[in-house]
Amino acid sequence: MPKILTPEQRETSRLRRRQRETERQRCARAADPDRYRLVAKASRDRHRPELRARKKQRWAHDPEYRRKQQARRARWLQHLRQEVFLAYGGPICRCCGEEHEELLCLDHIEGGGNAHRREIGQASLPQWLKAHGFPPGFRVLCFNCNNVWAQRGYCPHEVELDDVVERMVI
Fold it and tell me: Which one of 76, 112, 155, 161 is at 20 to 30 Å from 62 when CA atoms are compared?
């Protein structure tokens, strides 16, 4: 006849089983870390669809959760943006010296931004740059300078600087 346990005994038994399992996992990780990593990834992949469905349900029906996740993503994107600006010389426009981060953007030095965006697909440019080790060919410009470069191929700030330098030389 099975032994009848009180709720406290059941909880204690469950915790002991969990602790033994954790010890087994530690031993498996130490014995063969590569195999452990593959098994863990397979487990995550197996449960990923149901986790995604649960998150989707929560997003649809829990406005507080949605607000927190949006705020979390905004903080993460801001941090990523700052990291990318620092990788390309800091948060300052290379043309006019604008320092307000809200007014700065990334520019493809040789042009071709639209084609590049189509090539990388859904990923944002800062995410792509970080994933590829901040490759050369990009710079930080303010939106005004970036727009003038796209429309005319030069920036008035650079023309003004060239005029000042010419006057100083003459």
Answer: 76
